[in-house]
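Researcher: I'm preparing a figure for a lab meeting and need a structural model of a single chain. I don't have an experimental structure, so a prediction will have to do for now. The sequence is pasted below. Please return the structure as tokens so I can convert it later.
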Amino acid sequence: MSRRLLILLCLLPIAAVAEDFGDTWGTAEREAAYYRLVDVPMPDGVYVEAGSFVSLPDGRLAVGTRRGEILLFSGVEDERPRPRVERFASGLDEILGLAWRDGAFFATHATEVTRIADTNGDGHADRFDTVSDAWGFGHYHEFASGSKFDDAGNLYVALGLSESYNSKALFRGWALKITPDGKTIPLCSGIRSPLGVGANESGEMFYAESQGPWNGSCSLKHLRPGGFMGHPISFNWYPFAPNMGAAPVMPNSPSRMEVERKRVKELVPYAVVFPYKKMGRSITGFEVCRAGGKFGPFDNQIFVGDYTLSIVMRATTEKVNGVWQGACYPFREGLGTGLLSVHFMPDGKLITGGTNRGWPVRGMKDNLLQRIDWTGRTPFEILDIRAQPDGFTLRFTRPADAAQAARPESYTLESYTHIYQQGYGSPEVDHARPTITAAEVSPDAMSVHLRVRGLVQGHVHDFHLPDFKSRDGETLLHDRAYYTLNEIPKP
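Model: Understood. Here is the structure written out token by token.
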């Protein structure tokens, strides 16, 4: 048993005490009519704490686990799954990134990215090659999250801090790019506690950040090359990253992100803020839906898991004035364990997995994979929100009641931000009430252009559409959405 696993198991009686989380959105029963949860039972002798997924060319699902194994599943996609499982590799350390290329796995775990192959064809790994170990490790809480390959064949690794607060080992709190020839390039500093890294809808690399010091709430952040993600404790490694230049100016605390990004030119604002508890408490792995309609109307949107609340959310991003920003939306609650990873399988089903071990979590089941299947019914939802020079455009999954949608009073809008500070997290502050002056409905009633007076740059714009109905009289499945307005589009 690894030292890290032993420590976490010793902590289990304290750390995994159930909290009274209640419902996040109170919509689980209605959600099931559109997206049902399917448990994937484990065969005897198989124990899985899924930290990463990848689908293989032969149709099997590979799962990288916190216990350091790569397990190969067959039959996960069956209507009533009874999967067959083979252990391909073991002896690794918390696999939080798994990719496949040219007949081999590329596993990101605590201390390195490893290429793992079966050279004799017996179905089990027999060759382990280090691709990159260009970072330090010295504490069980120093997690490493890894991406899939980008179009150029690069991998990306986001490294958590030491003990969550310090940077005691090389490049802890940084993101690194690993090129196809094995070169490791420092990419960004200022990361705190990443539990997911990957591409957005446009192929740009992002990572999932948790609330904590210098992070008022959870967020998706753009890994802009040369960027500073906001937590300055890892400035000590700039001498080891000559390509990055000098360390940024130290941010002030307490302050606001909108203020400090004018002072600190490298500072990258949160692209999508997930308001705390309303939309998760510890967001984790994410993946873009490329299901081609097999998962309903949400193609090319980001699906994000949350560990603590055992929920899945949606997000969309757009680039405005050279800066990434976007919105998040509720999707599905009531999952059975703390989610670490989500993955769309080739048939369009969303597989989820994680653990209930180590931190408080709503979903208390262990040894669990769950699938989310679209039932074929399309819920009435806010499909997405896009910023406009004079407000926002909201699109819907089905036609809205045009008369109701044309009334500005059908929408409630407030805005707020968070304190950018060294302290842990932040309340919502600087509340404002932008005024919706007009609501212009498209001819097909699938979208509405809201003209807004009082947009606040740098604020989350919190939309509430209570009792908003479709053309056929159905209320929204989820009537909240949250847009992070880093930039107001130019006219």
